[in-house]
Amino acid sequence: VLNKRIAVLAGDGIGPEVCQEAVRVLKAVSEKFGHEFTFDRQPMGACAIEATGDPLPDQTLEACYLADAILLGAIGDPKYDNNPAAKVRPEQGLLKLRKSLGLYANIRPVTAYEVLLPYSPLKDARIAGADMLFFRELTGGIYFGEKGRIADSAYDHCTYSRFEIARIAHLAFKAAQNRRGKLTLVDKANVLETSRLWREVVQEISPSYPDVAVDYLFVDNAAMQLILNPKQFDVILTENMFGDILSDEASVIAGSLGLLPSASVGETAALFEPIHGSYPQAKGKNIANPIAMILSAAMMLEHFGLQQEADLVRRSVQVALDKKIVTQDLTPPTLAYSTEQVGAFIAYCV
Amino acid sequence: VLNKRIAVLAGDGIGPEVCQEAVRVLKAVSEKFGHEFTFDRQPMGACAIEATGDPLPDQTLEACYLADAILLGAIGDPKYDNNPAAKVRPEQGLLKLRKSLGLYANIRPVTAYEVLLPYSPLKDARIAGADMLFFRELTGGIYFGEKGRIADSAYDHCTYSRFEIARIAHLAFKAAQNRRGKLTLVDKANVLETSRLWREVVQEISPSYPDVAVDYLFVDNAAMQLILNPKQFDVILTENMFGDILSDEASVIAGSLGLLPSASVGETAALFEPIHGSYPQAKGKNIANPIAMILSAAMMLEHFGLQQEADLVRRSVQVALDKKIVTQDLTPPTLAYSTEQVGAFIAYCV
Ligand SMILES: CC(C)[C@H](C(=O)O)[C@@H](O)C(=O)O
Ligand SMILES: CC(C)[C@H](C(=O)O)[C@@H](O)C(=O)O
Question: Per the residue annotation, which of B143, B160, B209, B279 is the catalytic one?
Answer without folding.
Answer: B143
